[in-house]
Design a protein that fits this description.
single chain, about 180 residues, mainly alpha, about 70% helix
Length: about 180
Amino acid sequence: MHGPASSGWPLVALCAATGAYCLLRMRSTVEEQRRAAGGEALMGFGMAAMAVPTAVAVPPRGVWIAYALVFGGAALRALWAARTGAHHLHHLVGAGAMAYMAAAMAASPGHHGHGGLPPLTGTLLLYFAVYVLWSGVRLVPVAAVATAGGAPALGWGDRPELARVCRLSMAIAMLAMLFAL
């Protein structure tokens, strides 16, 4: 994940901006959207922290273990929430991928990409590649939401097309991080 600065900083910026927008989405009046936005904010900020180029900071092994524990906990929460909706399965895969990458970095920081592609990494790459294509296609036909009878316009936290863009950008970032693993 700690790749060159030329690709690392744009990835950090994208993930941090996505996390910040997800924090705004937590102000939604829809409880389910607030809950999903919280998990997505955690993913965005966690991905930003994990993507910082090694020229700036090389976290010690304990930090990677902490990341693995935090995202392992997020994966368990998503597993529990998956009982009520399929979207939580994507959160489960995302949090599991983050825990996997953090555990790989804790096991041997800075020594990745020298032994072929592990099957789990390949499976995650395939999943996120398909998710990027699927969510990109879903984003294209999103129609503007009309407000009827003077109803208030949707706030920034309630815009479904922006939530989809956030999920798409995080999936693209996840692909980049998995490739760097």
